[in-house]
Design brief:
With about 210 residues, the chain is an alpha/beta fold. The protein has a single domain (about 5-200), classed as Glutaconate Coenzyme A-transferase (3-Layer(aba) Sandwich). It is about 15% helix and about 25% strand. The chain contains 4 helices and 12 strands, in the order αββββαβββαβββββα. It has a 9-stranded mixed β-sheet. A 3-stranded mixed β-sheet has the order 7-6-9, with no helix packed on it. A hairpin with a 3-residue loop joins strand 2 and strand 3. The protein starts with a helix and ends in a 7-residue tail after the last helix.
Length: about 210
């Protein structure tokens, strides 16, 4: 199966030249390291357009952080602005895609990625705006939780971030698309068979 970096590298393959893309916290932030020579502009909802990859140890600038408060680098075309401008871009449909983490995804594209009832959370963040405002939502996550239970479900059990918003799911076991009637297998991770992917998935596969 894929590790976190391989999942991020696979997600980076979804991006095309000229796209403006938002990366969520967690595994999606690693996508910045795999953009390569593509002309991709990464947006962070805390007010940065044109994020570079993570800095090497010793080169960190504490004033340059992404929405997950990780230190990042800037580019020669980086622009800075306030949250109002940032969310104006998102809500105005200017961001082509968002690559987000998730706790659960349902077969109809419902997404739950912001809270577990009874656990302390800081708030929704930008997730609800992102799934409503961007052109394409790609989820990158582990296929199962720490108890070994599938996170790719018929219906989400956690509070939703958005209904019917996910287009593609990339997990450590493979790639799935949300289609009419359920999910379609696009690709299996290295070393994973289709039967293994099906057995690990609670959602309907068509």
């Amino acid at each position: 199966m894929w590790d976190r970096n391989q999942m991020a590298a696979r997600a980076a393959q979804e991006l095309e030249d000229g796209m403006y893309v938002n990366l969520g916290i967690g595994i999606p932030t690693l996508v910045a390291n795999y953009v390569g020579d593509k002309d991709i502009t990464l947006q962070s909802e805390n007010g940065m357009l044109g994020m570079g990859p993570f800095p090497f140890e010793g080169d960190e600038d504490a004033d340059l952080i992404n929405a997950g408060k990780q230190t990042i680098t800037e580019l020669n075309r980086t622009a800075y602005f306030d949250s109002a401008m940032s969310f104006g871009m998102i809500r105005g449909g200017k961001i082509a895609a968002a690559i987000l983490g998730a706790m659960e995804v349902a077969e109809n594209g419902d997404l739950a990625n912001w809270m577990i009832p009874g656990k302390l959370v800081k708030g929704m963040g930008g997730a609800m705006d992102l799934v409503a405002g961007v052109g394409r939502v790609i989820v990158v996550m582990d296929h199962a939780n720490k108890h070994g239970e599938s996170k790719v479900l018929k219906e989400c059990t956690l509070p939703l971030t958005g209904k019917g918003v996910v287009d593609r799911i990339i997990t450590n076991l493979g790639v799935l698309d949300v289609v009419e009637g359920g999910l379609r297998i696009v690709e299996c991770a290295e070393g994973v068979t289709e039967d293994e992917l099906r057995a690990a998935t609670d959602a309907t596969l068509v």
